[in-house]
Design a protein that fits this description.
Strand content: 15-25%
Helix content: 25-40%
Oligomer: single chain
Radius of gyration: 27 Å
Distance between the termini: 35 Å
Largest sheet: 8 strands, mixed
C-alpha cells in the first residue's frame, strides 16, 4: 500500500508539513482522555516514534478505539503538522487497523529486561533497543562492503560446507545426511556413504579459501556466516556469527596492520556519521561516554607493542591478575583490557606472539619462536581483530602442520598456493558481532543477533 516512511517525514519535513500523508506502523504506546487520544507509532524506519493526535469529535469511537492497543498495526491518514513538544506530529483524519493485537501481547510495558526479551526473539525487534541495535548492524555491514569495494577488493563467497578445519581446534559442526542410527564398522565407511563421500562440516573461517582466491585476484574479502561448536556460554561467544576476512597479496605484517587500523577507524566513523540517533541512544542508555570512546578511537594513532614487551608491562604492573602472566601464555581479557584501558588508554596492536599459541598458517619469525601475528586490542572489550602475515614458504608451512598432526593430504590445494608462485600475503579476521558490541556498548553477543545460536539453545 502506498504510504510514507516515518524516517522520510522527519528527514524531509519541509516537503510534507501541513500536508495530508499516509503512514503505517505499530502502536508503541497510547494515552487516552475524554476529548483526545495520543498514539506513538513506529514503522521501523526511524528510532523516533511519530505521535498521532486523534480528536474524538472528528474520528468516531468505532474507528479510534480498536487503534488504542499496544502492538496493533495501523494505516493512518492525517495532516503532518509542527509541534512544540515533538517537532512534528500527525493530526489524524482516518485510521484503519491492519492487524489487531490481543491483551496477551508480551510487550505491553515500556521497559523489559534483556533476559526476558531473549525468550521472545521473534518479537524483540519491535522494541527501541533492538531497533537501534539492528539499525547499527545494518549500517556497519554496508560500511564494510563500501570500504573494501572502494579499495579495489573483490568480494568472495567462500564455502559454508567444507572439509577443512581452518583453526585446527576441532570445533566444527558436522554436516551429514546419514540416518542417526546408521552403524558402520569404521568411520571411513560411514563417511563414504554420506552425501559428499567424505567428512564435512560447517566452516569456522573462510580464510583458507580466501587465500587461494587472493593468489589470483590480489586483494579479496569474505563476509559471511561462520560456525564454531565451542562449548562456551560467555557473553562473547555464539555458535553462529558473521566474520569479515580480507586477504592481501604482496603485503607483510606492517602493511596489514595499517590496513586494519584504517578499516576500523573508517567503519566506526561511518556509523557515527550515519546513525546519530542510535549512537546517542546507546550513549545515554547503555554505555555512558560511548561517543567519547568512539571519537577517541577515530582520532588516535593506535599503539604497537610486541607480545614480549606486553608480558613485561603486565608483570611489572603491580596488578593482581586472576590469570598469572608468563611468556608463552595466551593473553586473557583482563590482560588485554589493562593494556588498552590503563596503560595506553587507546587501541593497541600486540605483535609477534609465541608460535605455539597461534595458528599453523602464521609466518614464523627469524627467532624461530614467534610468528608475524598481531591482535588489535581495544578499550572495553579486549581483542577485536586477529591478524597475521601468512607463511609463504612451503616447507615451513608443512612443518608447522605436521607439528600439529594435521593431515597434509587434506590441504593439498592450499599447499599448492605455496608451491606455484608463492608471494608474501597477509590478512585479518573481524567478528561482526564483536564490532557491533564495541560500537553500541551492548554487553551480550546474544543481543546483536536476530536469532542467537548458543550451546544448548537453538
Amino acid at each position: 500500500m502506498k504510504h510514507t516512511d516515518i524516517e522520510v517525514l522527519f528527514s524531509q519535513s519541509e516537503k510534507f508539513v501541513n500536508k495530508s500523508v499516509i503512514v503505517c506502523g505499530w502502536v508503541r504506546t497510547w494515552r487516552d482522555s475524554k476529548a483526545i487520544a495520543f498514539i506513538e507509532l513506529n514503522d521501523g524506519t526511524s528510532l523516533n516514534n511519530l505521535q498521532l493526535i486523534i480528536e474524538k469529535d472528528k474520528i468516531s469511537e468505532s474507528e479510534s478505539k480498536p487503534a488504542l492497543v499496544v502492538g496493533a498495526a495501523l494505516c493512518v491518514t492525517g495532516k503532518f503538522i509542527p509541534s512544540e513538544r515533538n517537532g512534528f506530529e500527525l493530526s489524524v483524519e482516518s485510521v484503519t487497523v491492519l492487524g489487531s493485537c490481543p491483551q496477551d501481547y508480551p510487550l505491553q510495558k515500556k521497559h523489559h529486561t534483556l533476559e526476558f526479551l531473549r525468550t521472545i526473539p521473534h518479537l524483540r525487534p519491535r522494541t527501541k533497543y533492538f531497533e537501534a541495535v539492528f539499525a547499527v548492524r545494518s549500517r556497519i555491514s554496508f560500511a564494510i562492503h563500501k570500504y573494501f569495494q572502494s579499495h579495489n577488493y573483490k568480494y568472495m563467497h567462500t564455502p559454508i560446507i567444507t572439509g577443512s578445519d581452518c583453526e585446527g581446534a576441532g570445533e566444527m559442526f558436522r554436516v551429514t545426511t546419514q540416518n542417526w542410527d546408521a552403524k558402520y564398522a569404521k568411520e571411513q565407511e560411514y563417511y563414504a556413504e554420506d552425501f559428499f563421500g567424505a567428512k564435512a562440516g560447517l566452516t569456522v573461517s573462510g580464510q583458507l579459501e580466501g587465500e587461494i582466491a587472493a593468489m589470483g585476484l590480489g586483494k579479496i574479502y569474505t563476509f559471511g556466516p561462520t560456525f564454531r561448536a565451542e562449548h562456551s556460554n560467555t557473553t562473547r561467544h555464539a555458535a553462529e556469527f558473521w566474520q569479515i576476512e580480507p586477504e592481501v597479496c604482496f603485503a607483510d605484517l606492517h602493511d596489514i596492520i595499517e590496513i586494519a587500523e584504517d578499516f576500523i577507524k573508517t567503519i566506526i566513523k561511518d556509523v557515527t556519521d550515519n546513525c546519530p540517533q542510535e549512537i546517542t541512544y546507546f550513549d545515554e542508555r547503555i554505555e555512558k561516554g560511548l561517543k567519547q570512546k568512539l571519537d577517541n578511537v577515530i582520532n588516535s594513532d593506535f599503539a604497537k607493542i610486541t607480545y614480549t614487551e606486553a608480558v613485561s608491562v603486565l608483570k611489572s604492573s603491580g596488578k593482581d591478575f586472576k590469570f598469572p602472566v608468563e611468556w608463552g601464555c595466551d593473553l586473557q581479557t583482563e590482560h588485554e583490557r589493562y593494556l588498552t584501558e590503563e596503560y595506553y588508554k587507546k587501541p593497541v596492536f600486540v605483535t609477534d606472539y609465541p608460535a605455539d599459541i597461534k595458528a599453523f598458517y602464521m609466518k614464523l619469525n627469524s627467532d624461530g619462536k614467534t610468528v608475524a601475528a598481531t591482535d588489535l586490542l581495544v578499550p572495553g572489550i579486549g581483542e577485536i581483530i586477529g591478524c597475521s602475515e601468512r607463511e609463504a614458504d612451503l616447507e615451513k608451512l608443512k612443518s608447522a602442520m605436521s607439528k600439529r598432526n594435521m593431515p597434509l593430504e587434506a590441504y593439498m590445494e592450499y599447499l599448492d598456493t605455496r608451491k606455484y608462485g608463492s608471494v608474501p600475503h597477509s590478512g585479518f579476521g573481524l567478528g561482526l558481532e564483536r564490532i557491533i558490541m564495541y560500537i553500541t556498548g551492548v554487553q551480550n553477543i546474544r543481543d546483536t543477533l536476530l536469532y542467537p545460536r548458543t550451546v544448548g539453545s537453538l
